């Protein structure tokens, strides 16, 4: 028997202003995307922004539906749109922000397991690490790759 340990590394910033310029643009795009959310049932608005290897950014937002669970998370909305519109471009980063009542949440919101797996799939497809920025009003967490949020990624098929 061998005992093993998984460690998760990330960097915490006190605000968006502390980020490097390219990361700041992506984080700001995610915050802007929060306003695109359609969340009449949960009132939990989430925005995501995906960055391609050439620096281009696309946005997505959560979309709810009365026929629950027919809605879709912001992360998957942005990732699916990015892949469908630019299938040959690698995605190198995603930023996620959440808010309620017109205000960004103080602490970063973390993506659900399904979104983490979709991020892992597109990271694998792109052949390079996809950074993940989780944006809150009072702190931002940066993970250098999806594996840091989803160790033991499902990739058995």
Describe the 3D structure.
With 157 residues, the chain is of the alpha+beta class. The chain has a single domain (11-148), classed as Cytidine Deaminase, domain 2. Helix content is 25%, strand content 24%. It has 3 helices and 7 strands, in the order βαββαββαββ.
Gap from first CA to last CA: 27 Å
Identify the CATH class. Alpha Beta
Nearest-integer average pLDDT: 95
Measured on Cα atoms, how large is the radius of gyration?
A: 15 Å
Mass-distribution shape: globular
Number of strands: 7
CATH topology: Cytidine Deaminase, domain 2
**Helix content class:** 25-40%
SS summary, helix count: 3
Query: What is the second-level CATH architecture?
Result: 3-Layer(aba) Sandwich
Work out the count of structural domains. Answer: 1
Order of helices and strands: EHEEHEEHEE
Query: Low-confidence segments, ≥5 residues, pLDDT <50?
Result: none
CATH homologous group name: Cytidine Deaminase, domain 2
Structural class, please?
alpha+beta
The biggest sheet, with number of strands, parallel, antiparallel or mixed sense and barrel status, is: 7 strands, mixed
Proportion of beta-strand residues = 15-25%
Comma- or semicolon-separated keywords:
single chain, 157 residues, alpha+beta, Cytidine Deaminase, domain 2, seven-stranded mixed β-sheet, 3 helices, globular
How does the SSE layout of this entry go?
Layout (H helix, E strand, L loop, with lengths): L10 E3 L7 H14 L10 E8 L4 E5 L12 H12 L5 E10 L2 E2 L8 H14 L4 E5 L4 E4 L14
Parallel strand pairs: 4-6
Antiparallel strand pairs: 1-7, 2-3, 2-4, 4-5, 6-7
Helix pairs in contact: 2-3
């Amino acid at each position: 028997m061998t005992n093993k340990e998984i460690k998760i590394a990330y960097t915490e910033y006190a605000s968006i202003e502390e980020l490097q310029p390219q990361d700041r643009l992506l984080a700001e795009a995610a915050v802007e995307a929060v306003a695109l959310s359609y969340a009449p049932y949960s009132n939990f608005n989430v925005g995501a922004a995906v960055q391609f290897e050439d620096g281009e950014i696309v946005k997505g937002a959560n979309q709810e539906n009365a026929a629950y669970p027919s809605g879709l998370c912001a992360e998957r909305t942005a990732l699916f749109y990015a892949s469908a519109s630019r299938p040959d471009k690698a995605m190198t980063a995603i930023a996620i922000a959440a808010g309620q009542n017109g205000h960004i949440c103080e602490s970063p919101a973390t993506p659900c397991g399904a979104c983490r797996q979709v991020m892992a799939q597109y990271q694998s497809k792109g052949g390079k690490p996809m950074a993940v920025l989780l944006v809150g009003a009072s702190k931002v967490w940066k993970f250098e790759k999806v594996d840091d949020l989803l160790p033991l990624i499902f990739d058995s098929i």
